[in-house]
Amino acid sequence: MMPGLRAELDRLLSILVDDELSEADHARLEELLRNDEECRRFYLEYVDLHVRLTHHPKLAALLEEVPEPVAAPPSMTPVVSRARPLWLPLMVTAALTLAASWAVQLFVSAPKPADPGAVGLSQAVAQAPAIVPSYVATLSKNVACVWEGDEPLRSGMRLLPGVIRLRSGTAELQFDGGAQLVLAGPVELNVESVTSAAVVSGKVLFRSDDTAEPFDLHTPMARLVDYGTEYAVEVGKTGEEVHVFDGEVRRSPRPAAEPETELALNSVSVMAGEARRFLACDDVQGCSVPLDAGRLRIRASAPAAAESAHRQSAGELLAYEPFACDAAVLPCSGAGLGGIGFTTPWVKACKSEFVPEFRIVNSLWRPQMNSATEGGGVSAGCRGAMSRRLARPIRMDEDGVYYFSYLIRSEKRAGDGSCDVQFILRDHLVHEPQRKLAVSASWSSSKTSLCWEGGGNCASIPVEPGKTYLMAGKIVAGREAPDQAFLCLFMPRQPVPSAEPSSWTLASRPVLSDLKFDVVQISANTATPVLVDELRIGTSWAAVAGVFAAP
Amino acid sequence: MSTVASAETARSTEKLLCLLAQHQEDLYRYVFSLLPHQEDVKDVLQETYIALTRKFDEYDAAKPFLPWAYGFAYLQVLKHRDQSRRAARTFGDDIVELLAGQRATHAVTLNDRLSALDHCLEKLPQQDRLLISHRYLSRTTIEQLTEIAGSSRRTLFRNLERIRRLLFDCISRRIEDRTDECTGECGV
């Protein structure tokens, strides 16, 4: 079994038996069990082990051999009830149904269930249907990177499991499980799963916190397990070094090198402020070396001047609609086009049965904006849709990363009826209703959703009337790899980051699409005016959200 | 009911109870593998035992009891799935069928693995042994466990995952060693 798959199964099955499995984890486990005989075999062996442990007579004996921790105050010492003997004689005289019930109780009540407690470690990314491979990480920063391979990796790209080679520069990978890896080229890394990777060679900094899923970092000689940690690992020809800046790392030799003896002897803990060098597979303890934060605490940040220039750049903006149309009411066919990156004015959408009422009104604004907006905003009322063609389509049949953003606000009052508005991207040649990317905001149901060819997702988000929200999204397109969309909803005073967020409010399931989104559409079903403004589509986060980011 | 019939029923009841006592862990493991939630397993076993009781006069004592009982348990799992409030967190019918089929062909290995567990539990470091014992034997809550271990909730789950992995790998190595020994002895 591949190490990445094994690590993923270990994680999923452990939280399954501890009753901490989230819906997304459950969907992923089902996918693995449905499609892979080896996974099913592993699962059966794992849950059998769990059930056996719940009643293992040896555990009681072993527990008696282990002294309770002396330091623990009496109130913290748990009340331990010994395992009930599994084979208690059943009383023949009992009524059978009662006895059956009793037999169940005997077996079921003895094991201590893990307290379900709080919600498990949730993942924003819903898992893919069986036919679509799952992305596991995002290339969140890409500073002066030279990558090996025909297609250079770009910032914002999603990564499937596989080997990546960075010749020079600094890159940051944000894993879907929450952990971050910073790579300093030259480095070769095998991205295994949402919670594991293997450093083949080079320097890698690992960062995580308590909100992240546990992460396994493998090296040619060992497996590193973090405990709320920041640490660096360097893999060279003559050995490996582990430098721990925060928390604790437990290093265990790879299974092939594990001796048969005491399992405890096979790992060593490296604490914050310590560094160790390991020269061979059987070098379990390694030797202490000076901590070298200067060399190994890598940061993936561009020089300030370059960062500032990048944020100002509008070169990556594909389309911008400030609603500076010179007509008071849309559709403004024949009137001034307004905006950039469009080939047509706003027109009534083909499938719309109603002539919508879209009025140009005052523009929207956010406190963080460092420049005044152009033109006005559009106020959508009644029911209907209007659309506009893009000069450069968003192509889902080619590799690429796109971003979009817009401001939205409703003046809905209590007792008003429907108040729903959708931002839609679609292919003008495709008329199947579900084959589009739709971001919906509903003030009547306090729900925001992201729908894409059946791979949608939605969340209850407390949007309030009279407040201006920023909707910012990302679309990952793959020629052969899956396509996926993300959405972040920024509250009125929530700071907007200068780089794309490490986590998103909503993520679609990965889908396989070959559409060319060349139509932008705004659809409304609202009894109360909803304002939309500052619509941007681009190829970088800075291009669509830079204007909203704090200086 | 006549005295003869009553005596016959009592004997039948006694026999079934003996069989259930003998195989309750197998039945529990079987049901848990198809429906991995303790409360669901409890309900399904209850229904299974009742069904076995009703149909026990059809059981052919010349045949193994477990495959016959598994048939009832399997049906109860499917029935429970359809009725459960937690249906969203249960496996689909196709997966239940795949797991049940694979479990049948894999039964011998599964039993071998369990017999290797004793050895591997002894190999655990003392601290890990204490944690796993508290997790499985005592009624310690997760919150109490985090206090005892002096760790966060996340670290606790991480440690439990690590210990289960150690046990799983230890069992696998032991099974492989046995297979190697057997292969050597047989000269195959």
Task: Annotate the secondary structure layout.
The complex is a heterodimer of chains A (551) and B (188).
Chain A (H helix, E strand, L loop, with lengths): L2 H15 L5 H13 L1 H18 L2 H9 L30 H14 L27 E11 L10 E2 L2 E14 L4 E14 L2 E12 L8 E3 L3 E14 L4 E14 L14 E4 L3 E4 L8 E2 L4 H4 L7 H9 L4 E5 L7 E2 L16 E2 L8 E5 L15 E19 L4 E11 L8 E8 L9 E7 L4 E6 L4 E4 L8 E9 L6 E7 L15 E2 L8 E23 L2 H5 L6
Parallel strand pairs in A: 5-6
Antiparallel strand pairs in A: 1-2, 1-3, 3-4, 4-5, 5-7, 6-7, 7-8, 8-9, 8-10, 10-11, 12-25, 13-15, 14-16, 15-16, 16-25, 17-22, 17-25, 18-19, 18-25, 19-20, 20-21, 22-23, 23-24
Chain B lengths: L2 H32 L3 H18 L9 H19 L9 H13 L1 H17 L2 H11 L5 H8 L3 H34 L2
Describe the protein's architecture and organization.
The complex is a heterodimer of chains A (551) and B (188). Chain A is an alpha+beta fold and 551 residues long. Helices cover 16% and strands 37% of the residues of chain A. Chain A contains 8 helices and 25 strands. Chain A has helices at 3-17, 23-35, 37-54, 57-65, 96-109, 293-296, 304-312, 541-545; strands at 137-147, 158-159, 162-175, 180-193, 196-207, 216-218, 222-235, 240-253, 268-271, 275-278, 287-288, 317-321, 329-330, 347-348, 357-361, 377-395, 400-410, 419-426, 436-442, 447-452, 457-460, 469-477, 484-490, 506-507, 516-538. In chain A, 48% of the residues are buried. In chain B, helix 1 (3-34) packs antiparallel against helix 2 (38-55) and helix 1 (3-34) packs across helix 3. Mean pLDDT of chain B is 81; it is low at 181-188. Chain B folds into 2 domains: 3-105, Rna Polymerase Sigma Factor, Chain: A (Orthogonal Bundle), CATH 1.10.1740; 108-186, Arc Repressor Mutant, subunit A. Chain B is 81% helix and 0% strand. The chains are: A alpha+beta (551), B mainly alpha (188).
